[in-house]
UniProtKB/TrEMBL annotation, chain A:
This is DUF881 domain-containing protein. The keyword Coiled coil applies. Keywords: Coiled coil. InterPro entries: DUF881 (IPR010273). Residues 38-72 form a coiled coil. It comes from the Bacteria. The keyword Coiled coil applies. Belongs to the UPF0749 family.
TrEMBL record, chain B:
The chain crosses the membrane at residues 29-45, 57-77, 83-106. Its main location: membrane. It is a multi-pass membrane protein. This is DUF1290 domain-containing protein. Pfam families: DUF1290. It comes from Alteribacter keqinensis. It is found in: Cell membrane. Belongs to the sbp family. One of its GO terms (cellular component) is plasma membrane. Keywords: Cell membrane, Membrane, Transmembrane, Transmembrane helix.
Amino acid sequence: MMKDRMMIFTVITTIIGFMVAVQFQTTKEPDVRDTRTVMELRQELTAEKEKQQELIEELATQEEMLEQLQNTGNVENVIEEAINGLKARAGLTEVSGEGVLIEIRPYFDENYQGGAIRTVPAHLVRMLINELNIYGAKDIAVGSQRIVSTTPIREVQGVTLINSRRMTTFPLQVRVLTDDPEQLHHYMMTSEVKEYLQYENLEFTSAPMTDITVPAYDQSMRVRYMAPVKEES
Amino acid sequence: MWLPFIGLLVGILLGLSTGIRVPDAYTSYLSIAVLASLDTLFGGIRAHLEKTFEEKVFITGFFSNIILAAGLAFLGVHLGVDLYLAAVFAFGVRLFNNIAQIRRLLLERWSKRKKKDLSASP
């Protein structure tokens, strides 16, 4: 009799233990479900494919360089060329070519009642640069400051700083190099950032140019989170 | 005596090793089921100590309590009333009552045994 009772208790406690464990697991690690739609998945796939393509191209150039290094006796020239190429890509050299010149200036109508406009808001500069990049800009300079991958765009006491330099002169010139200036010009004239600038009483004009010069990044590059790879012998 | 504890451990290990997870929407049902089962378990222990334990009552009570509690929670969700709170409240109060009663019974037994020992020893 007593044994039966213990068996019943055991079965019940086993069930309780099981339920508690399941509940514990459920509340402890909620299952993160993939809720992306087919469209989003496709987009991601396309992005990954583009990345793959870029990597393949990169690999091809590297292989070409390796071949050059192996074939030519003059290693120095090849290395120098490679360094120059990297410098150009990092924005450390002055580049010129065809592109678009964008000028941002204050715009007042007769009903304007606000104060003086000192600078273009930082978030709009960021938005402009993002849009330019989306539409195929290769090199960008805002004012006299070259935009590189580490360029900070900050707002300090109401003044926008780019590369820690104040951007207070109007018109603010944005020089952009691109392969197709005409197309970029049209994109920018219909872009969203134009509208946002209007809310801040700023207007911009864009003009395609056949020859435009983008200055080099003039400060020392601060590279963090990177270390030279020690080659294994 | 130790068998129920071993059962509990086995249950927990089984639950953890199978890695079964309940969908988020049903966690409240499971939690209420756990509460109901704990309530029944302590009721059973109390009845066992009071010597009024009946297997059929215990087993049917266990399952019907779980089903009732989960059903109540389900109904609450669909009516837009937090009915599971009623279940939590009822089971919680009963759980505490049962545990208090179990503690009293155990204390009583322990003091009785002590008295017996004292009267037997000289």
